[in-house]
Amino acid sequence: GLRDQFLGHVVRHEQHELEEKSTALVMEVAIQQSQLKEVQDNMLQLLSYSSGNLLDDEKLIETLAKSQETSSVIEASLAASALTTSEIAAVRDQYTPVAHRAATIYTIVSDLSNLDHSYQYSLAAFTSLLRKTLRQTTTATASSGISGRCADLSKQLMADAFSTICRGLFEKDKPVFAFLIASTIQRLQGAISEDEWKYFTRGSQGILVDGTSDPPAWLSESAWEELLYLETVSGFPAVTADISSDPDL
User: Which helix (H) or strand (E) holds 225?
Assistant: First the structure.
């Protein structure tokens, strides 16, 4: 998917030799699997065409033995390749946070067309922006490791994307873009729950909740009903009681 595409770009820049090795390994495994199938098919064909007592056919036995030996060698090579592939995948996976951040931001950028049809941003242009960030971002200390590098890249990519995309936005849409980035990332990190987000975007949707107190005179009945429903959302357990008991309101 989109995240895997961005992950490839990130790893290719950060671990160039590793990514080349991964690509070569994929090709090597494909060739080996093809060779193994060919050997196994050949063995089956020899057996199907043989007649009489198999033990009396020395040529057949010799050919099958060589085929079996070749098959064992290929299988051993495939097992070694699987181990190497696993080791490469473990390193690649450490860069997933950057790819995930890139995919998140690009999805938001793509959805900006819902604000104005002129907001059109291609995947190629965003990929170019990602590569620029990878080239220009420096990490203060080598001791921070891959996790520190990923944190720096994610932070810088967000800043680069925001400043670049904002150049093409109307002033009224820039705060919306900032909000979408901030809220989406906080939702992914769990700082904003799905219940809180649903309430923010949809309200109570007419669902009534019984309350223990009446609304203040200055607050409409519908607004009070929304606050009562808000109390069912985590993080707002006593909002109506706080409003009712505050003499300054």
Answer: helix 221-230
For residue 167, which phi and psi values (nearest 5 degrees)? -60, -25
Output the six-digit token pair for 145.
Answer: 């490791």
pLDDT digits (tens, 9 = 90+) for 33-49: 888 788 788 777 777 77
Which pair of tokens denotes residue 37? 């199938």
Rounded-to-integer distance, Cα 37 and Cα 45, Å: 12
**Backbone torsion region of residue 213, taken as left when φ is above 0, otherwise alpha when ψ lies between -120 and 50, otherwise beta:** beta
Which residues, at least 6 apart from 158, have a Cβ–Cβ distance to it below 8 Å? 101, 105, 181, 185
- Separation of alpha carbons 192 and 189, rounded Å: 8
How far apart (Å, rounded) are the C-alpha atoms in residues 65 and 20? 36
pLDDT per residue as tens digits for the range 196-230:
999 999 988 888 888 767 788 888 888 988 888 99
What gap in Å lies between CA 182 and CA 167, rounded to an integer? 18
CA pair distance 21, 15, nearest whole angstrom: 10
Q: Would you say how long the chain is, in residues? A: 249
CA dihedral 150, 159, 100, 169 (to 10 degrees): -170
Q: Token pair of 226, please?
A: 């929304």
Q: What's the rounded Cα separation, in Å, for the pair 128 and 136?
A: 12
Q: State if pTM tops 0.85.
A: no
Give the whole-number percent of the chain exceeding pLDDT 90: 45
Q: How far apart are CA 181 and CA 184, in angstroms?
A: 5
